[in-house]
Each structure stands twice: as C-alpha cells, then as structure tokens.
Amino acid sequence: FALESGPESATFPEDGVLTWEPAEADAGNTARFIIAATLDEQSARQEFSVSVPKVQIEVEQRIDTNEGTPILQVDSPLSPIRGAALIVPAGALPNSNPIPGAGRNEDDGVVITIGSVENAPRLPAARGAPVTVVDFGPSTVFNAPVTVAIPLSDDTRTAAAASGNVISAYTIGG
After folding, report:
1. By C-alpha distance, which of 161, 159, 135, 160 is closest to 148?
2. Residues in Cβ contact with 54 at an 8 Å cutoff, skipping those fewer than 6 apart
3. What is the pLDDT of residues 101-115, one digit of tens each?
4. Is the model's pLDDT at 64 over the cut of 70?
C-alpha cells in the first residue's frame, strides 16, 4: 500500500488504515487522495476526495440558565439559516466543573454558537434535494434536553402540504 497523493499530514501505514485529521485551514476545501496497492504483478489505484465542511458562525452568545430560559436565535435577514434557534431550559447547562474548550466558567455560563455549514456532505435522506446544514456548538454541553428550532423554507412547507408528508421534529440532548 502507498499513499501517492494526499495532504501532508495524512498517514497510511502498512496496516492499510488511512488517517487524516483536517486542520482549521482545510475547512471549506476538498482534499484529494490517491492510494496504490501492489501484489506480485497486480496493481490497483483508488482515487477519492474528502470535503471538509466549514461552519460560518451566525450568532454566538454567552448564556446562563440561572437568568431564566435563554433563547439564542439567528435573526439576520441575509442568513441562510434565519430563524434557527436554541432554547435552553433551566438545568440544561452544567452547574459545576468547567468544561474544557466549551468556554464554561461557573460564574458566566457557556458560550453557544449557531452556524451554517458550507461544503456540507450530502445527506442521504434529502434524496438529492438541496439542504442547508445547521451547526449548534459546542457539542456535549447539555445535561438535559434543549429545544432546537430549524426554520423551514416556504418551498419545504408547500411541498410537504401538497404531498401529505409529515415534517418530523426531534428532541436533542439529555
């Protein structure tokens, strides 16, 4: 096995397991890989690409449920995810033990972000339809369920009503 082409930080040892962790600078780009294998006189090459999503932070806010039930919402009329919101009830945020990397400080809450995802992977359930992916961060912050509001386009509402399909909602966390 050999990695003929790919990012410099990619490794492809003899066990045949390709490892690569994209850097921040890779966000929004696509990395191309070429792997070659030879056995006796037979050889094969495999080419593939990996797209690295980029999150465009639309809103960022420090929230603390000790001050009520905060709502973090994207209000910009130019945002592709306008209306996306996160409602955080009491008890959903950790009350002790700061969370490394999550901005948690016992005195000042947690920094939460909502962003649109550029260069997102295709979602099989979308069946080829264009979708906008929303990122809520940081992950693994919540102790209890939170409400995530995802705006639906007028086209989605109209298509669902015309076809009789049900639009599903899910509870995340807890």
Report:
1. 135
2. 27, 28, 117, 118, 119
3. 554 444 556 778 888
4. yes
Mean pLDDT of all residues in 132-160: 71
CA distance linking residue 144 with residue 76, whole number of Å: 28
Q: How far from 138 is each of 82, 131, 141, CA to CA, in Å?
A: 20, 22, 6
**% of the chain residues with pLDDT over 70:** 70
What distance in Å separates the CA atoms of residue 63 and residue 119, rounded to the nearest whole number? 29
Give the E-state strand segments of the chain in sequence order. Answer: 2-5, 30-39, 42-51, 54-63, 71-73, 85-87, 110-118, 133-137, 147-149
Q: Is the pTM value of this prediction over 0.70? A: no
Q: Which residue has the tokens 């592709």?
A: 80
Bridge partners for 73 per DSSP: 85
Report the run of H or E that residue 157 belongs to, with start and end. Answer: helix 154-163
Distance CA 9, CA 7 (A): 5
